[in-house]
């Protein structure tokens, strides 16, 4: 039997969740919640690092993200859902960890580097944005998580977290902090509908779990495919063609998908046929989520109660971690 693991993940409430979140992380969370102690964090503080001028947007999306969780089947009886800004221990830990990381190391983080370029921050990147991986190390360690089911883009964050954990434990001669392992799914990164490497809220290339049937249809029918596949009879490319990536992620009939890929590569299979198949698969997947979401959104108070309960539970664990950390750092004053 597996040793009891502690799982933590989170999402930034900068918009509702999309099928990339599902493939990258939500699907694994649904599996893990039956076996382990699982925490899911709504990362409002992290969302502010690039949305500090729009706190209202972050606040509104906290509820949207919580609704997405409940609609896909994250069960509050099994999973503790909490709000990051209500756990002050995370901010405290972040301050302690910042001493253990160099600015150069933060600048070298590949995901942060990519994001700084995408957002055009250049030399004007804020200290808050640059150090968000440190805050993420605090999120993971505050509940002593040893398993983090995430998409591929998060690997550098887990690596950075473990470096901090090892440095902390070595310098303060303690085992207060626990290293974490990333759990990466089969489809480690879902591309956008525009064919860009990553589906992302901020790139505007996402299919949301809450999109209406009509919007899903439009998005799929307008999806990027192989631009050189002009006539049905032309051989087409499967690599870099997001329609096939989505089928890989969501179509359980692996054999049929493989046959379609072979046919497409030989020539004779049109984009429309493949897109229609994908549309059917996605509607069948999204419809139950959509209707559960509509039902749940009628009682926002019940959703907030789930978050309150989860946050109070997390707070208790966070305080335990904090007392171990302060003890190791000789910051226990006894009053
Ligand atoms: P933003 O544009 O605000 O950064 P995002 O769409 O990149 O939003 P995050 O909230 O940054 O989403 O990511 C939350 C989690 O979802 C992470 O574990 C991340 O790896 C996963 N994830 C996000 N987008 C994808 C994707 N396209 N494929 C796989 N996993 C993804
Ligand atoms: Mg992101």
Question: Which features characterize this protein?
Answer:
about 325 residues, globular, 2 domains, two-stranded parallel ribbon, 5 strands, 3-stranded parallel β-sheet, mainly alpha, binds magnesium ion, Tyrosyl-Transfer RNA Synthetase, Rossmann fold, binds adenosine-5'-triphosphate
Q: How would you describe what is shown here?
A:
By secondary structure, this protein is mainly alpha-helical. The protein folds into two domains: 6-190 and 300-328, HUPs (Rossmann fold); 213-294, Tyrosyl-Transfer RNA Synthetase. It is 54% helix and 7% strand. The chain is built from 14 helices and five strands. It has helices at 19-32, 44-48, 55-72, 88-98, 103-108, 110-119, 127-130, 132-142, 155-171, 213-221, 242-250, 254-266, 271-296, 300-328; strands at residues 6-11, 37-42, 79-83, 147-149, 181-183. The strands form two sheets. Strands 1-2-3 form a three-stranded parallel sheet. It has a two-stranded parallel sheet with strand order 4-5. Strand 4 (147-149), helix 9 and strand 5 form a beta-alpha-beta unit. It is globular and about 75 Å long. The two termini are 42 Å apart. 40% of the residues are buried. The model has no long low-confidence stretch (mean pLDDT 96). The structure holds adenosine-5'-triphosphate and magnesium ion (MG). The site of adenosine-5'-triphosphate (ATP) has 19 residues, from helix 1.
């Amino acid at each position: 039997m597996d040793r009891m693991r502690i799982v933590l993940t989170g999402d930034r409430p900068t918009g509702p969740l999309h099928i990339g979140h599902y493939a990258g992380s939500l699907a694994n969370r649904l599996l893990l919640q039956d076996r382990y102690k699982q925490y899911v964090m709504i990362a409002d503080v992290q969302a502010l690092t690039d949305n500090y001028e729009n706190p209202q947007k972050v606040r509104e999306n906290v509820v949207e993200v919580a609704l997405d969780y409940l609609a896909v089947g994250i069960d509050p009886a099994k999973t503790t859902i909490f709000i990051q800004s209500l756990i002050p221990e995370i901010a405290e830990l972040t301050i302690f960890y910042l001493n253990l990381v160099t600015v150069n190391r933060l600048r070298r983080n590949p995901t942060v580097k990519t994001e700084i370029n995408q957002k055009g921050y250049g030399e004007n990147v804020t200290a808050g944005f640059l150090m968000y991986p440190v805050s993420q190390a605090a999120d993971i360690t505050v509940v002593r998580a040893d398993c983090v089911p995430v998409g591929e883009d998060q690997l550098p964050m887990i690596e950075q977290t473990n470096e901090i954990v090892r440095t902390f434990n070595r310098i303060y001669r303690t085992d207060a902090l626990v290293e974490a392992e990333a759990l990466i799914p089969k489809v480690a990164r879902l591309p956008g509908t525009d064919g860009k490497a990553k589906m992302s809220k901020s790139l505007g290339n996402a299919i949301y779990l809450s999109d209406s049937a009509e919007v899903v249809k439009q998005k799929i029918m307008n999806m990027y495919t192989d631009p050189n596949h002009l006539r049905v009879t032309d051989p087409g490319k499967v690599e870099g063609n997001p329609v096939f990536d989505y089928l890989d992620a969501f179509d359980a009939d692996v054999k049929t998908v493989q046959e379609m890929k072979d046919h497409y590569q030989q020539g004779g299979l049109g984009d429309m046929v493949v897109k229609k198949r994908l549309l059917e698969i996605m509607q069948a997947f999204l419809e139950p989520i959509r209707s559960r979401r509509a039902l749940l959104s009628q009682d926002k108070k019940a959703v907030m109660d789930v978050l309150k309960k989860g946050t109070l539970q997390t707070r208790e664990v966070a305080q335990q971690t904090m007392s171990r950390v302060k003890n190791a750092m000789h910051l226990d004053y006894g009053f």
